[in-house]
Please model this.
Amino acid sequence: MALVVAKFGGSSVATAERIKNVASRLVRRHNAGNQVVCVVSAMGDNTDHLLDLAHSVNPNPSAREMDMLLSTGEQVSVAVLAMAVQALGVPAVSHTGAQVGIVTDESYTAAKIGAIVGVERLRKDLDEGNIVVVAGFQGINEAGEITTLGRGGSDTTAVALAAAVGADYCEIYSDVDGVYTADPRICPKAHRIERLSYDEMLELSANGAGVLQLRAVEFASKYGVVIHARSTFLPDSKGTIIEEAPDRMDTNYSEGVVISGIAHDLSEAKITMRHVPDRSGIAATIFTRLGEMGVNVDIIIQDVSHDGLTDISFTTPMDDVEHITGTVSEICREIGGEGVEINTHIAKVSLVGAGMKSYPGVAAKMFRTLADAKINISMISTSPICISTVVDADECAHAVQALHTAFGLDSEEEENNVKVVR
Amino acid sequence: MALVVAKFGGSSVATAERIKNVASRLVRRHNAGNQVVCVVSAMGDNTDHLLDLAHSVNPNPSAREMDMLLSTGEQVSVAVLAMAVQALGVPAVSHTGAQVGIVTDESYTAAKIGAIVGVERLRKDLDEGNIVVVAGFQGINEAGEITTLGRGGSDTTAVALAAAVGADYCEIYSDVDGVYTADPRICPKAHRIERLSYDEMLELSANGAGVLQLRAVEFASKYGVVIHARSTFLPDSKGTIIEEAPDRMDTNYSEGVVISGIAHDLSEAKITMRHVPDRSGIAATIFTRLGEMGVNVDIIIQDVSHDGLTDISFTTPMDDVEHITGTVSEICREIGGEGVEINTHIAKVSLVGAGMKSYPGVAAKMFRTLADAKINISMISTSPICISTVVDADECAHAVQALHTAFGLDSEEEENNVKVVR
Model:
C-alpha cells in the first residue's frame, strides 16, 4: 500500500466531465489499496472570470482581497471533485489550504509556504478510508488571512503536502506526459525521459522546460519528495520520475556523460551597457542596484576590456524590461557608460546533464555543433550540470534540433544511460 | 457616531454595477461618521450555478461538500464588494464566516449559530477605519468544517453580528422598502409600517410576510437588536424599524387596539383525518408521531365530537405533504379513523397586532368581516397578538383586502396608533 499525493491542474478539472475523469482515476488508485491525497487547481478559466469581475469594480484591487477572491476557485474544485468521488461510492472529503494548515508568509498573491501544521487532520481522513482533496495554490498566514502562492503554487502545494504526510511519491498530472529531451513542438525527435535527478530537473525548469514549476522542484529536492510527472489524458503513459539519484546504470556500466535534455527559453531579453569604464566594483554596483529593484537577472557576461572600457550584458525576463529600462539607463549614465542596448529577440538554449562537469569536451562539442549549424552564440553560461547559450530567437528551433541530434538524443533506445521511449 | 450592520441580499449584489451601488451606499454611511459592517449574500444566481455544477457530478452530494461549495459564493461577494469600496478611496477588508468566528452546530446546510468568537478582529478592523464586509449565510463548526446556515441565513448572520459587536442597529436591505400592512401585490391600499415590535414582526413573518426571515427576527428579539428593514433600490425610503417597544403613542393617547397588519400564506396544505374515535390521548399519538418525522405542524383543530367520532385537521408546509402522506394514512388506520383528506388549495390569513388580546371584539370583527364578504372560514387559531383563519385559496386576496379596510389600515394618516405612510 502506498500513500500517493496526486496533483491535477486547471485544465484537468475544467469541466464536470473532466472532473469525473479525475475522480475515476483517484478511485482506481484508492481501490488498488493506496491512500490517496489529491491537490487541485481552480477549474479552467474560473480564475480569469474572477479577475474580470475584480477589475470591473476596481482597476487596482488590494492584494489581500484578490487572494480572498481567487482562493474561491480551488475551493469550488475540491468540493466538486470530492462530490464526484462520492458518486463513485468512495468516501471523500475536501479541505481548503487553511483547513490543512498550509501556513504561508504575508506576501499576498505570491506567498511562500512556511509550514504545514494540519497534517493530523488529513491523516485521520485517510485512515478513515477517505480520498482527501486539498485546494492547491492557497494557504493562510499567521494572522489567519487567506493567501495565494502565485505562479506554480498548486505544484508546490502538492509537493509540500507529500513531504508533510510522508507520501511515497507526488504525481503531477498535466497535459503533457512527462519531461522530454526537448520541447516536442520544436523538436519532433524529442523523447520522454524516464528518470531525472532533482538537479537536472531544476536546470531544465530554470531554463525553460514548463512541465514542472521550478519552486516545486526546489521544494521536492529539499525534502526528498519523489515527483512523478504524468499525463492526465494518457493514463497508460509512464511519465517521468524525478528523484535524488535516479538509477540509470542498471543496464549500462559506461561512465559516459549523461545528457538529459535540451531546454529553451524565449521569454528573456538581453540588456547590454556599452563601453562602461572597466574599474573594480562596477558589476557589483550595477547588480546591487538591480537586486534592490527586485529584478531577476539570469546570465551575466562582462566582455574582455578594451582601452579600459567593457560591455556588460545580462538577461532578464521580458516582462520586467519595460519597468527597469529607466533605472538601467540611469545606472549606465552614473557609471560613465555610453548607452544601453536592449534585445528582446533572443533565445536561451541549454544543455542539461548530470556528470557533465567531468567532461570538458561537452561544452566544446556544443559550441562546435552550433557553429557547424551556422548559429552565432552571443552569451554563454555554465553550471556543473548545465551549459546555456544565448542565440538569435529565429535560430532557436534549429539550435535545439542540432544539439538533440549531436548529443545522441534522437535514438529510441537507451542512450547515454538515459532511457528514452517514444 | 453609530455602529451599523447593513445586510444586502443576493439581488442587491447580482452584478458588478449593483455591487458598486452598494459600495457607494456604504461609503456614504462611513463618511457620515459611522462605523460600518456589511453582510452580503452570494451574487444573484451564483448559488444556482454552483448547485447545477454539483448535481452534474453527483445527484446526491454530501451536505458537507455542498457547504464547502456554496460558501464560496459569499466569499466572492465580500471580496468584490471590499474591492469596490476600496475603489472609492475608503479602506475595506472582507472576512469569511470562519474568519470572524461564526461558530455553528454540526448541521450542514442548515446550521444554527452557537457563538460568535471573532469579534475583536472585526472591531480592530473598524477602529482602523475600515468598512468591514462579512460573508453571510456561513460559519464554521467546532471541528473547523465550513457550514451554511440555510434559508434566511444571511439575515441571521447580520443580526447575530449586530448583537455581538453591540451595533446601534441592523439594517436589512431587500427589494421591498419595509414591512407593509399587507402584501401590496394583492392589497393595493397597503402601506408601509413605520415601527413594529419583535412580537408583531414574529407573527407577521411566521404567517407569511416574506420581508424578514423568522429566525433572524427571533435572534433580534432575543438579543434586543433593532432591525431596520430598508430598500436597496429606494435610498430615500424610510423602511420599517423593528424593536422591543415601539413608541407609537406619541401623538395619540387612545388605548385603542393596535392592528399592525394582515399577513397571508399560500404555502400550506390542510390535512384532515376523518371520523377518528374521540378518546383521550388521540391527538398526542398523532402529533408525537408527526413530530418524530420532523414534520412542521402549524394550526391544529379538533372538531366537536359526534357519536364518539371527531375530525382532526392540521396545516403543514405544502412541500412536506408528499413525503408525509403515507405516514399520516398509516396513523389514521392505526387509530381507527375513516380516512385522510388533503386540501392544498388553502390560504392562511392572519390579523396581527399588539394588545389585541385585551379586545375580544377584534376576533368577532374579523369573523364578521369575512362573513360579510361571503368568505367561509375552515380553521381558526389565536395567539395573544394574532388571529389566523384558513380560507379557500381563491378568497385570499379578497379576505386580505376586506380585513385591511375593516381594520382601518387603508388610511394614509395615523391609524390605530400605527403610523403609516405611502
